[in-house]
Design a protein that fits this description.
The complex is a heterodimer of chains A (107) and B (120). Chain A is an all-beta fold. Helix content of chain A is 0%, strand content 50%. Chain A has no helices and 11 strands. In chain A, strands 2, 4, 5, 6, 9, 10 and 11 form a 7-stranded mixed β-sheet that branches. The radius of gyration of chain A is 13 Å and the shape is globular. The termini of chain A are far apart. With 120 residues, chain B is an all-beta fold. Chain B contains no helices and 11 strands. In chain B, strands 2, 4, 5, 6, 9, 10 and 11 form a 7-stranded mixed β-sheet that branches. A 4-stranded antiparallel β-sheet of chain B has the order 1-3-8-7, with no helix packed on it. In chain B, strand 9 and strand 10 form a beta hairpin. Chain B is globular, with a radius of gyration of 14 Å. The N and C termini of chain B lie far apart (39 Å). The model of chain B has no long low-confidence stretch (mean pLDDT 94). Classes of the chains: A mainly beta (107), B mainly beta (120). At the A-B interface, strand 5 and strand 10 of A face strand 5, strand 9 and strand 10 of B.
Chain lengths: 107, 120
Amino acid sequence: DIQMTQSPSSLSASVGDRVTISCRASQSIRRYLNWYQQKPGKAPTPLIYTASNLQSGVPSRFSGSGSGTDFTLTIDSLQPEDVATYYCQQGYSTPRSFGQGTKLEIK
Amino acid sequence: QVQLQESGPGLVKPSETLSLTCTVSDGSSNSGSFYWSWLRQPAGQTLQYIGRISLSGSTDYNPSLRSRVTISLDTSKNQFSVKLTSVTAADTAVYFCARDNDSTENFDYWGRGILVTVSS
């Protein structure tokens, strides 16, 4: 099984800041890396698929990059509504697997 | 707009079988481009993949649960289901159904989730 490791586990930033979250796979997953946002009590919502493709309806301040084993989610100009937990997930093979999550808060 | 909705008991006794159904609103359960998936999330933890089923009925299960889980599909009702046998407190979680899109290789639509508690 492919293990996904996210860092940091929590993050506090100010409105307007640029925020980056990292995700590392235990083996190469090419570009089959997805990002989700989850707010308390809600289901995850997709943000980015196959490393850098923005899901329909997602604001353009969200972007993704990377390939192989190392990936990054970037939020340009953090907004109050971005407070959430962010998860990476590999779509390269089954069983699908997720990172442990990064909890993002506003300073 | 695709909508998924989980249904089933919110309380299951230890050693019994957990059974949940997901209803898909737009009939895309008849499309071969998707896999119909179950995931779960214990309180305060990350998401765990339980398994999935294709239109052809081909299934894939998480090896950690394979001996206890069965996923089935009823296209006539636009529903798919999961059964998990011999449950323990460790199976207490929010259970989600989701669509695994073969084109984008991600879970692009999710149900709202249903909390299932295992307790006597």
